[in-house]
Amino acid sequence: MKETDTRYMSDLKLAIVVPCYNEEAVLRETTVRLTEVIDQLVEASAVCPHSFILYVSDGSTDATWSIIEELHRTTPYVRGLKLARNSGHQNALMAGLSAGKELADVLVSIDADLQDDVMAIPEMITRYADGADIVYGVRRERKSDTWFKRNTALMFYRVMRFMGIESVYNHADYRLMSRRAVEYLCRFRERNLFLRGIIPLVGYHTACVYYNRGKRFAGESKYPFRKMLSFAVNGITSFSVKPIRMFFFLGLMFLLIAFATFCYVIYSYIRHQAVEGWASLMLSLWFIGGCIMTGIGVIGEYLGKIYIEVKDRPRYNVEEELL
Ligand code: UDP
Ligand code: MG
């Protein structure tokens, strides 16, 4: 029997993992909305009543943690994890997922600010019941984002594709993962986390649900331009050695130019058109440039290999065995 046939939904324990960095303005409302969703799912026997919300306070400096403590005491589903310092969104999410996988069968990650439609969660659970191990929440449109954010994001996806990195267009970190998918994810030991790039490497059957992304409910974005840029650079350099490899081809191009220059120099020399010293100067300029560039490219190739080895990523993920 396939595993998907044995997914008894009413025993299903759901964890909703929410990274929070200075989110005192939204936490109460987020709890109300997520509680509603869990209540609804419990009612429909889609998940069990031991399901929970796991807030991860990412070194917040405001009242975030005390609000989580209070909600844990006064509301049925809230649990919390407090990181000792600000470790960044991706690390906070990872902390929540790896703690949550010990307690739940299926985990949904969502931002604290209610920009992602919480009503997509029941649909994600349905997709899980149909056999998907990873369900991506995909934004239908980006009307609520500024022109700037929309276009920089689009450019980012294009560059990622060009660099050969697989990622789901218009999907951020709103997704459902089964426990076994999270377990495999936890085997990626790298420090520079870019979850959107890693998750397609997990494999399994995946699905998408579409939703409209709203405005931040309250508070300010925790991703200023500076953080966005470093996130993008990190995403590209964590997955692709293409940028260093390009130097090799640039070097080859320079050598080609050196060869063309060589022909031209000889031609000018024979016709006595050249100023003295020009020929040797031009030639050595392109030739040395080309040698240095290809040299860097070769070093880059080795460096890239070392980089990939150092990450020590798992090589494959076994889904079923008939041994
Ligand atoms: N976040 C975090 N640590 C950080 C920055 C952000 O845990 O260092 C959380 C934040 O609380 C929110 C989520 O990551 O739940 C996404 O942040 P935000 O909504 O500010 O990003 P935006 O939607 O503006 O891209
Ligand atoms: Mg947001």
Notes on the structure:
The chain is an alpha/beta fold. It folds into 2 domains: 3-239, Alpha-Beta Complex (Spore Coat Polysaccharide Biosynthesis Protein SpsA, Chain A), CATH 3.90.550; 242-311. It is built from 10 helices and 7 strands. A 7-stranded mixed sheet has the order 3-2-1-4-6-5-7, with helices on both faces. Helix 9 (242-270) runs antiparallel to helix 10. The longest helix is centred in the C-terminal third of the chain and has 34 residues, at 278-311. Bound molecules: uridine-5'-diphosphate and magnesium ion. Uridine-5'-diphosphate binds at residues 19-21, 23, 58, 86, 88-89, 92, 111-113, 115, 221-223.
Task: Summarize this structure as a short list of keywords or feature phrases.
2 domains; binds magnesium ion; alpha/beta; binds uridine-5'-diphosphate; 7 strands; disordered N terminus; Spore Coat Polysaccharide Biosynthesis Protein SpsA, Chain A; 323 residues; 7-stranded mixed sheet
Mean pLDDT: 88
- Radius of gyration from CA coordinates: 26 Å
Strand order of the largest sheet: 3-2-1-4-6-5-7
Question: Can you count the beta strands?
Answer: 7
- Named at the architecture level, the CATH assignment of the largest domain is Alpha-Beta Complex
% residues in beta strands: 5-15%
Q: What's the CATH topology label of the largest domain?
A: Spore Coat Polysaccharide Biosynthesis Protein SpsA, Chain A
**Structural domains: how many:** 2
- Name the CATH superfamily classification of the largest domain: Spore Coat Polysaccharide Biosynthesis Protein SpsA, Chain A
